[in-house]
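Researcher: Here's a chain I'd like modeled. Treat it as a single chain, no partners, no ligands.
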Amino acid sequence: MIASLKLPLALLAGLLLPLSLHAQAPESVMVVEAYSGKVLVAANSSVKRPVASLTKIATAAVVVDWATATGTDIATTTLVIPQTITLVGGPNPLNLQPGDQMTLRDALYSALLGSDNLAALALADHVGRHINSRRGKNADPVATFVAEMGKLTKAIGMANTRFVNPHGLDGAGRAQGQSTAADIARLSIYAMRRNAFNFIVRQKTRQISVITPAGKKSFTVRNTNELVGEVGILGVKTGTTALAGQCLATCMDREPLVRNKPDGTKGATPRRLIVVVLNSPDRFNRTRALIRQGWAIYDPWLAAGAPVKDRRREFLTLPRIQ
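Model: Modeled as a single isolated chain. Structure tokens:
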């Protein structure tokens, strides 16, 4: 079923420190090749931390999975902005007001590209209400949705993760969600398998609209991930709060490696790198350096025939969930 993540012994050294030292660790890192699951770089990768808006990766994945399962068209289905957005606080880049409407797709663009907390909450409210209706329950729709986020983390082996809201905000009086660099890498691999998610997070900008009592208003949402647009970069998500620090999950593809097989045919090996940094002092440049480091480790390993000494220790694996 789901193999638990175990790292090479050299990488485990940083994970065997007392918890008090873990708390002082300046950064958590995980670099993994997504198709093989080969762990390339790890530091403090199993240390639980707040992950800020990286939470929205799970939010969007649940929305996309729900839409697929129910046959819902995210491009045409609209949601209604709930009254509960007034309780979230923080920026309101679209000036959303209770009763406004927008498509699920535009809400996903705002949540994933613009890191809009209110759009994330509205998505959770909408999907949660539909789930409650199907189950014949009269429960808090956002709580229902967050429970689905928990089911997803369990299904893909994110054993050290607990999400408590769909947006990732933390602060005084607010329950704190936590995850790890290793778990966010798992989540990123999973989410990037979803075509709708994959397409959204690779956009640098997107025009979206909100239907208000005064009419339709248009907005340009810009991707907060400044790496998007660089060669091979496909997303995934930024996150920043006072408690979490600078966080970034990134996906990069390279051209498949074509090789001659013993039977005379050609085979192609796809290559995709997932890089996660949590509480980084310079998340974008750090990720650029880790991308170079990751490929410098992966390519020689692959050229040597992809040797494996202990699969449980050297690989991060996910179930084959379609």
